[in-house]
Amino acid sequence: MSDTDSGLLSWLTGSFWGPRALFLAGTILLVGVSSYGGPLWTLIAASVAFLLCASVLVVRQLRLGHSTQGGPPGWLIRVAVALCVAGLAIQDIYWLASRRVDFLLLIGLVLLLLGLGWLAEAWRGAPRERATTLLWWGLGLVGFVAATGLVAVSLLPAAKGARFLLIVVHLGVAVLVLLPLGLSLLSEWGLRKLRTRTAIGRIGLYIILLVTVGIVWLVLIDWVLEAVLAAAALALLLALVSNTHLDVALVLAGLCLIAAAPPEEAEPVALTSPVGKRILVAMGDSYMSGEGAETFFKGTDDSGGNECRRAPSAYAVKAATVKDARFDRLVFIACSGARTYNVLESSKHPQATPQPGETFTQIDQLKRREASFRPALVIISVGGNDAGFSALGSACLAPGDCSTEKVKKLFLDNLKNVQQALTETYKSLKENLPRNVPIVAVPYPQPFAEKPRCSGVALTGAERDFITKFLIALNEAVHNAATAAGIEYLSGMENAFEHSKVQLCQARKGNAGVNFVDISSVNGLAEQRFSPAKWIHNSLHPNERGHDALLGALDTWLNEHEELLDPPQVTQGAETPRSPMARSEASEPKPQCSMTDTGDNNCRTQVSKWARQQLNDKWGWGLVVLVGLAILWAACIAATSLLPGHGNSAPATADPAPDQRTPTTRSDRRSDDPDETT
User: Fold this and answer.
1) What would be the CATH architecture of the domain defined by 264-570?
2) For 43-57, 488-502, 523-537, 650-664, which range has the lowest pLDDT when averaged over its residues?
3) Which of 678, 434, 669 is closest to 573 using CA atoms?
C-alpha cells in the first residue's frame, strides 16, 4: 500500500472529518437505493454498506469519548446548521411542488436528521464552565415538547382539514426533532455528573441487563412485537446517550427501509390471458385479494392510489396457477377495503361507487367483458368491511375491553344492515352474469382457536370470544343473504384455519396463518409511506400459510360439489328459483347506527369516540410507561458513564498534525479533577 493510500485510510478512519465523510457517503448510497427502488438484494447491500460506514464513526466516538474529540466545534456547528436548513428547505420544496418529486421528502428528512445529530454533538462538547447550560437547554426543550403534546392532544379531537394537518406537523416536529435533541443534552449533563460514581453506573448496568432478560423472555413466550419494541427503545436510548451517532444511523436506516418500496410481482399468464375455457372470477374484499402477503402485484399496492393489494399468494390465484389447477384463467378483481357498494352495478344502484384507484365497480368491470365471457365459477368474499371488522380490530387493540355490551351492540345490531346490503349485492351480481353461472358466497374464517391462554396475542379471552361470536353472526348474515339471492355458500371456509391448525392461539404466532399485528411498508406517495397508520395494513389478515389453508377448503368444497363446474343448460328466459329470506326484517328494530352512514350516526365514528375515551381513561398506564422509559434512560446514562471516555476519563485532545503527535498513555489522558468536563 502506498503512502497516499495509507494516508487516505488513516484520514477516513482516524481523523475528525474522515469518519463523518464515510457516514455521509453511506447515507447517500442508502437514500439513493431506497428512493429509486430496485431488487431486494440491492437494498440489503446498500444497508450493509451504510452500516459499515456508520460503524467507523461509531467506533471512533466510543474510543475517544463523548466530546467533539478535539475537532473544530465552530465548523461542526456551521455544517450542522447548514444541513438542518437544507433539510427544511427541501421539505418545503416538496410540499410546494404538490408532492410531485417523491424522493425529496426522504432527502429532506435525512439532511435534517444528520444536521441535528452533528448539532447535538457540538453542543455536548461545551466546556466545563458552560455545563449548566446543557441542563437548562435540555429541560427547556423537553418541557416545550411536553407542553406541545398536551395542547395537541386537547385540540386534535375537534380539529379537521388543514388545522388537523398543522397540529400533526407541529407535534411531529416536537417529538421527532426537539425531544431527541433535549434528551441528548440532558444525557451529556448526566454523564458529567456521574463520571466518578461507579456504583451508580453499576446499578444502571444491572437494570439494562434485567431489561435484556425481559426482552428474551418476551420472545420465548411469543410476544415478539412487544420484544421488538422494547429492544428498539433500549437500543435507541443507549445510542442517544452515548453520543456516537448510532441513534442517527438507526433512525436513518429505519426511514430508508420504510421509504423503500416493497417488492412487487408481475401478474401471471392466468390473469393476463384473454382466453380460457375454465375461467374463475374472484371478487370482493381483502380476504379474497390477498392482503396480508409479503408482496403484491404491480400497481395494486400504491398507497394514495390503487390499494387493492392483489397478491400472488391469494388462494384464488393459486387455484388458477398451481400445477393441475382446476381453472386455466383468473379474472381477479377483488380489492382490499371493498364494501358492498363497491361491487354493485352502478346503472341501477345510485350508491354504487368505485374504489380509489379503480375506474369501475366490480360488477361494472364484469359487464365490460366480451359478450362471450362465461365464467366457470364466481367466488365473492364481501361484507366484512360493511360490518366494520377492521374497526372492531382497532377497538380491541386499543386500551380497554372491546367486549363490553356497548361495543357489542354497535357491531352486532349493524349486521341487519349488512345482510340486506349483501342480499342486494348478490342479486345484482347474479343478474349481470350469464344464466346458470355458479356463484359462491365465501364466509370469513375464524382466526382464533378456543384456548384459555393465547401467547403472542394482546387480546383478553373475553375479547377473543367476542370476535369469534361476531364472525359467527357475520357468517350467518352472509349465509342468509346467499340463500335469499339463490347462490351457493362455501361453508367449509369458516373452519379452514382450524382444520389446517394455523389459527392464532393454536399455533405459535410465527407459524400461524393469520397476521396479528404485522408492520409492513407500502408503495405510493411519500407522505403515505411515512404514515404509521399505513404500516399495519397486513394486520388481522391471512398470510401465505393462511391462503394455503383457504385453498384447501375451496378444493375440498369443490370436490363435494363437482356438478357446479358443469351445470345443466337452462332455457333462455327461465328464472332460477330463489329461496325466501331466512328471517323477516320487518318486525325487527332499526339498528342504532350504520357502518356506511355519514356523520355521528356512523358506527365507526362511535367506535372511535369509545376508543379515545378508553385512552383517556387509561392515561395512568401511559404515565407508567413514560416513567419506565425515564428510568431506563437514566440507567443508560449511568451504564454509559462506565465506558472509557464517556464520563470516567477526560476527553481526547484535538487531533494534532501528523508531525506533532506524541504518544500518550491512558493515565496521561485521565483527569484528577472530578469536575473537569469534555
Assistant:
1) 3-Layer(aba) Sandwich (3.40)
2) 650-664
3) 434
